[in-house]
Design the sequence.
């Protein structure tokens, strides 16, 4: 197997989506039993660096606005997205509108929204 240079590796990483990069970092951490928290934070920083612009919002709140007709499925999705127990997840769903995730990345927020809507819920990203 040919050894890649640092520049070659960086060009591969440049072409990866944030989700692909996160999956790679998770696998890397697991294989080598390390934490790559600092590189993740650097990779997730918005281009341009100021982070204060309204246009480049980088954290989102996932808000369950309505549970819909399949409440049990929605509760299962809420539990899968959070570390909540059954009782706490049920209370969140029953008490809609409820914040499910706060400060999530765009990719994570979109993924959560898709999962919850797939279970029949109405979801809003803020």
Sequence:
């Amino acid at each position: 197997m040919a050894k890649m240079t640092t520049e070659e590796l960086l060009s591969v990483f440049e072409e990866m989506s944030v989700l692909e990069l996160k999956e790679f970092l998770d696998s890397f951490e697991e294989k080598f039993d390390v934490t790559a928290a600092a590189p993740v934070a650097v990779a997730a920083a918005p281009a341009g660096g100021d982070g204060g612009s309204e246009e480049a919002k980088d954290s989102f709140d996932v808000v369950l606005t309505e549970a819909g007709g399949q409440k049990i499925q929605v509760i299962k999705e809420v539990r899968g997205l959070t570390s909540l127990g059954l009782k706490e997840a049920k209370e969140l769903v029953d008490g809609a509108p409820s914040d499910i995730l706060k400060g999530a990345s765009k990719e994570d927020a979109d993924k959560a929204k898709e999962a919850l809507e797939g279970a029949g819920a109405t979801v809003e990203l803020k």
Residues 38-45, 48-54 have pLDDT under 50 and may be disordered.
